[in-house]
Design brief:
The protein is mainly α. The protein is built from 5 helices and no strands.
Length: 151
C-alpha cells in the first residue's frame, strides 16, 4: 500500500467515525422524541447515514484498508451528556433538535477536515465526500427550520 493510500485511508476512517456518531445520535433522537414526524425523519437520517458509512467503507476497502465501524470518544461523551440532560429537562423537542443541529455542525467540520486532504484522495472519493457534505448541510438547514417551528 502506498503512503498516499495510507493517508487517504486514515482520512476516511476518521470521517467514518463521525458518520457513525451521526448514526448513534439519530438513534438516540428516535428513542427520546415524542413527535412521530420527527421520529420518522430521524429514522430516514439513520438510513442515510448508514448509506454514507457503507460508501466510505467501500472506498476504504478499495484502497486496501479495513472498514471503520467505531465512533469518536467526543461523540460518546456528548451522547452521555445528552442522556443526563434529558433526565433533568425531559425529552424537550427543541432540545433534541438543537442537539441534532450541533451534531450536523460537527459533521460539517469532519467533512471539511477530510476535504482539506482532497489532493490525496482519488477524485471519485472527493466527489462522494463533497456530496455527503452537501446532504449534511441540507439536513442542518432542515433541522434549523424544525427548531424555528418548535419555538
Amino acid at each position: 500500500m502506498t503512503n498516499n493510500n495510507e493517508k487517504s485511508i486514515d482520512v476516511l476512517q476518521e470521517l467514518n467515525q463521525f458518520v457513525n456518531d451521526r448514526i448513534q445520535g439519530y438513534k438516540h433522537a428516535v428513542e427520546v422524541t415524542k413527535d412521530p414526524a420527527h421520529q420518522s425523519y430521524y429514522n430516514d437520517l439513520i438510513k442515510q447515514s448508514q448509506q454514507f458509512s457503507n460508501e466510505i467503507n467501500s472506498a476504504i476497502g478499495s484502497m486496501g484498508g479495513s472498514p471503520q465501524n467505531s465512533t469518536t470518544a467526543k461523540g460518546k461523551i456528548f451522547r452521555g451528556w445528552m442522556d443526563v440532560k434529558s433526565t433533568f429537562t425531559g425529552s424537550d423537542e427543541e432540545e433534541i433538535i438543537k442537539s441534532n443541529i450541533f451534531g450536523e455542525e460537527w459533521a460539517q467540520k469532519a467533512y471539511n477536515d477530510a476535504l482539506e486532504h482532497k489532493h490525496e484522495l482519488p477524485p471519485n472519493v472527493v466527489q462522494m465526500v463533497e456530496k455527503q457534505k452537501q446532504t449534511s448541510l441540507a439536513t442542518c438547514e432542515r433541522l434549523r427550520q424544525m427548531e424555528k417551528a418548535a419555538d
